[in-house]
Amino acid sequence: KSSCFNLYQLITLIFNDNGRTIEMTITAIKFFSVIVILLICVSKIINSLDYNEYMAFNNTNKIYFGKEMVIFDLDRTIWPFSVDNDVNESYAYVNVQDDVDLGALAPYPEVVSVLDSLQKEGFIICTINNCKNSRIATNLVELMDLDRFINIQENFPGPKINHIVSLHNLSGVAYQDMLYFSYETETVLPILNLNVTYCPIDDNGVTQAVVEKGLQFFYKRPNSNKTQEFVPPFDDSIVRRDEDYSRSV
Fold first, then answer.
1. How far apart are the first and last CA of the chain?
2. Residue 193 or residue 44, greater confidence
3. What pLDDT score was predicted for residue 58?
4. How would you label 120-137 residue by residue, b for 16+ Cβ within 10 Å and e otherwise?
5. Can you tell me where the transmembrane regions are (predicted)?
6. Which tens digits make up the pLDDT trace of 11-27?
7. 3-state helix, strand, coil in the chain (%, to 5)
8. β-strands 69-73, 197-200 pairing
9. Contacts of 178 (CB under 8 A, 6+ apart)
10. Where is average pLDDT lowest: 2-6, 36-40, 122-126, 157-161?
11. Using an 8 Å Cβ cutoff, are 109 and 42 in contact?
12. Distances from the Cα of 6 to the Cαs of 2, 17, 158, 194, in angstroms?
């Protein structure tokens, strides 16, 4: 009986205390209702974001965000051969700290000076390659002492649009702030659809003149999502397919 009486007294005290407890309860309910509504709104905003933009926001390297990026394909662009077709697979297993004989493997003559100039101008420099064994490309870049200029390497099999998207997600650099140099003209359309500026490379590989021409076009790019119109830069007599290059190394 004593317990029941005490409980009755407690309940009476709570509800008779000038209604303050009830008012506090109502206030708390209103507060938590507002919190729930805000959480729902934030969830809807996040779900409405483009996936790639959301990933870029969460993975952005603050050093790269807002800067301009220059991307080079490796095959036929940085060097005059194809990793898959012309390089012995043993280069995947070499110790890059050793004095490795590269034989005829070397970058185009003006590559080092071009990369050095771009680095001094503050560009983010990246390279991509879709060879089957990515370790070969990575090792060759280091053995040629080109890695000192390169901020990000994306070497893995698959369409090169995947490499561009990966660079965007890793760096936070907008597609319209990317300038892409590559020998391949046949696979560039999907990349152009991302609003990336593309500059073709001919049989001479990367040269200072070609890069300067690409930069001039890059600086004239509109600040919009309008896709560039693709015009083949070379006629069929000049464009060389991968299978046409069969030099053994």
1. 99
2. 193
3. 45
4. eeebbbbbbbbbebbebb
5. 26-46
6. 555 555 555 666 666 67
7. 45, 10, 45
8. unpaired
9. 68, 69, 70, 71, 164, 167, 168, 196, 197
10. 2-6
11. no
12. 6, 16, 76, 73
- Residues with Cβ within 8 Å of 237's Cβ and at least 6 positions away in sequence, in order, are none
Residue 11 vs residues 16, 17, 25, 87: alpha-carbon distances, Å: 8, 10, 15, 86
Decide which of 51 and 173 is more confident: 173
40 confidence band (pLDDT: 50, 70, 90): confident
The whole-angstrom separation of Cα 227 and Cα 223 is 11
Q: What is the DSSP letter of 152?
A: E
* DSSP states of 224-241: S-PPPPP--SS-TTT---
User: What is the model's pLDDT at position 208?
Assistant: 96
Domain boundaries, the chain: 11-49, 61-220
The hierarchical CATH code for the domain 61-220 is 3.40.50.1000
pLDDT in tens, 181-228: 999 998 899 999 999 999 999 999 999 999 999 999 999 887 633 344
